[in-house]
Design brief:
This protein has about 260 residues and is α/β, with parallel strands linked by helices. Helix 2 packs parallel to helix 9 and helix 4 packs antiparallel against helix 6. The longest helix is centred in the middle third of the chain and has 13 residues. It starts with a strand and ends with a helix. It comes from Roseburia hominis.
Length: about 260
């Protein structure tokens, strides 16, 4: 019976130590595909930010942007974008509350640089994108600018609370720890993306498996009976919400879990 597995990227497919892709994970995913199973990335990253090194592992498809952009067998089968009007409301709210905001879409990422980025993690992310050679538009008021989702960094709780008086009408806020939050359109998640793929291939949920390590993986981990938390998962409460806890990503966690569930 064909099975399907969905993998988060950061801390799941990649090592929690240095962000590399363990060779054992590459081997296991390729071996599982060779055995007739489907392998999918299911990530909060939008497609543009799924680096070539991840695509080169060899996947049957990608669920990107927390279920807002889906690719199967090389074809895009779903894309949900926000209107420019909605994006401008978010931009104005971020400026009002002095928040670092990063808009994401399937084609580009864009920081609001109307004032200098304040949070050190936001600055580091901007520098990382520059190092990868990403072209980041700066004129966000352009009527052709839109996003699929976004993330932000704040310094004080009242900033986030004030911003959410605008964003909660359109987006769910996911706590990613510290002063970092991820925002996904209402009605979309890694779970809705997963279900869309299962419907596309007509695969039963009992033959589907989800691998993750953080709070934004929780929807897909709790949507399936077969769910895997990496040993490096955070918060540790994720361990109580999955059917199997494997080793850390850096300790061959993916290979061991795929062996455990009979993919290889």
């Amino acid at each position: 019976m064909k099975k399907i597995a969905f993998f988060d990227i950061d801390g799941t497919l990649t090592s929690e130590i240095d962000g590399s892709i363990p060779e054992s994970a590459v081997y296991a995913i390729r071996a599982a595909r060779a055995n007739g199973n489907l392998m999918f990335i299911n990530t909060g990253r939008c497609f543009q930010n799924v680096e070539q090194r991840f695509r080169d592992v060899g996947f049957d498809g990608f669920v990107c942007g927390c279920g807002t952009d889906i690719y199967c067998d090389g074809a895009e089968i779903l894309h949900v974008a926000q209107t420019h009007e909605t994006v401008m409301k978010l931009l104005l709210a971020a400026r009002e509350w002095d928040i670092d905001i990063l808009f994401e879409s399937r084609k580009e990422v864009a920081f609001d640089l109307a004032r200098p980025l304040r949070h050190p993690d936001a600055r580091r992310q901007y520098e990382a994108f520059e190092e990868r050679g990403y072209e980041m538009p700066e004129h966000l008021e352009n009527p052709n600018f839109f996003c699929d989702k976004f993330v932000l960094w704040f310094e004080h709780p009242e900033q986030l609370a004030g911003f959410r008086t605008t964003s909660d009408r359109y987006f769910e806020c996911i706590d990613r720890g510290g002063n970092f939050r991820e925002f996904v359109p209402l009605g979309y998640s890694k779970a809705t993306g997963l279900n869309y793929v299962l419907d596309y291939y007509q695969i039963d949920k009992k033959d589907a498996y989800a691998f993750g390590d953080s709070n934004n993986d929780l929807p897909m981990l709790t949507a399936l009976t077969n769910s895997v938390a990496m040993g490096n998962a955070s918060p540790a409460t994720l361990f109580d919400k999955v059917s199997y806890v494997t080793k850390c990503a850096s300790e061959d966690g993916i290979r061991l879990a795929l062996e455990h569930f009979g993919f290889i």
